[in-house]
Amino acid sequence: MIDAAPFFANNTANSIGLLNATVRHGIQNLVFSSTAAVYGDNVALPIKETEPTVPANVYGETKLLVERMLPWYERVHGLRSVALRYFNAAGGALDGSMGQDHEPATHLVTVAIKAALGSIERFPLFGSDYPTPDGTCIRDYIHVLDLASAHLAALEHLSGGWAGDVFNVGTGAGHTNRDVVDTVRRVSGVDFPIELRPRRAGDAAELTADATKLRQALGWEPRYSDLDTIVGSAWEWHRTHPEGYATRSAATV
After folding, report:
1. 59, 73, 86, 141: which is the annotated catalytic residue?
2. C-alpha distances in angstroms, 53 versus 44, 56, 63, 174, 216?
3. 233, 72 Cβ separation under 8 angstroms
4. What whole-number distance in Å separates Cα of residue 122 and Cα of residue 115?
5. How many percent of the chain have pLDDT more than 90?
6. Structural domains of the chain sorted by starting position, each given as residue range(s) with its CATH number in brackets
7. What is the pLDDT of residues 134-171, one digit of tens each?
8. pTM (predicted TM-score)
9. Is 59 labeled as catalytic in the residue annotation?
């Protein structure tokens, strides 16, 4: 069983400290990084913002608690905010100069790339009996550059005097875990081994976004979120930075 305490400490308690600091310093607009995990399992697909929020894991619950605080901070303190419900953020700078440096790696694209690089012996595939075309989970992947543009659009929205709101950030296109693995194999040219493991608790069979609201209200459109661009940009970063940012630092000493 996962330890819930760090999630509540980092995602909820620390967010309270952040919100209080924004009020103290007179900040009027805030963009909050939320998650599709607030929805849970029993939702219509693709998921609209109006779907019930019943998280199936502690991560989603701790993010949802912050979402529930935000309208109160607007009502009481005038802090207007937009909560962006990320689906699966992935990828790196298109020139390979920036990427995800996080240990231990937990995101599927990064873990698959580490398997291709030989940093881990086998790629762990959690669940192969879901009611999906190939039995693995389906997720909606959003490139970090498109996610960044959604943040800028949200700030412009708030700066224009609009009230706080909640938006999904995704493409509506789902890819199975095996799709991602096959794409990493093709981009890297490495046929790394897979280790099948049981399902993880709280993993929904499919999570794909309806981002119509974001497109219509903020004029946002994803530009880099096809799977090849996501995987290709992430691969270029990890290939040239096998030790993360320490690789670049060591090279310049």
Report:
1. 59
2. 12, 9, 11, 20, 22
3. no
4. 6
5. 87
6. 5-244 (3.40.50.720)
7. 999 999 999 999 999 999 999 999 999 998 999 999 99
8. 0.92
9. yes
Distance of CA 52 to the CA centre of its chain: 20
Q: What phi and psi, each to the nearest 5 degrees, are found at residue 41? A: -100, -40
Name residue, tokens 């330890």: 3
